Amino acid sequence: MTDAHFPELTRAEEQVMQVLWQRGPSFVKDVVPELPPPAPATTTVSTIIRILEQKGFVGHEAFGRTHRYHALVAQDAYRRFSLRKLLGGYFGGSFTRLVSFFAQEENLDAAQLDELLRHAQASSPTPPANEPDPTTEHHA
Predict the structure, then answer these.
(1) Which whole number is the average pLDDT over 22-30?
(2) Beta pairing partners, 102
(3) pTM, entire model
(4) Which residues neighbour 50 within 8 Å (Cβ) at sequence distance 6 or greater?
(5) Which of 57, 67, 97, 98 is 20 to 30 Å from 90 at the Cα level?
(6) What count of other Cβ atoms lies within 10 Å of the Cβ of residue 3?
(7) Residues near 66 by Cβ (< 8 Å), separated by ≥ 6?
(8) pLDDT, tens digit (0-9, with 9 covering 90-100), for 84-123
(9) How far is residue 19 CA from its own chain's centroid?
(10) What's the Cα-to-Cα distance from 6 to each of 54, 80, 84, rounded to whole Å?
């Protein structure tokens, strides 16, 4: 399954995945107390995990009659998928609109915006040697 084609997860399914990503392989009894209150019943969590297995997000290892579950989808892959969905659905695919929205909503100051820009520049790929770097100005 590629990250561009993940099935939709419910809020409860995402919460269980967050626990599995944080804890690593876990039994249902270990997942339940990690969920936000009010914690669902153990049988409910077990059902959610079986649904996640059907969707291809979770696998298991059997120990007699019990199972230890583990994530099959990496958190970063799902994070990328979710961000693309958010960008496409609410910001017309524009990262600039997304950042502008959060800058306004969170009242970011100039220092915070500069920090965001530094992070973006640090993670940007370096252009090939035969292409000019678009972040520098060239005067003829």
Answers:
(1) 97
(2) none
(3) 0.72
(4) none
(5) 57
(6) 15
(7) 27
(8) 888 899 989 888 888 888 888 888 888 888 888 788 778 7
(9) 13
(10) 12, 11, 12
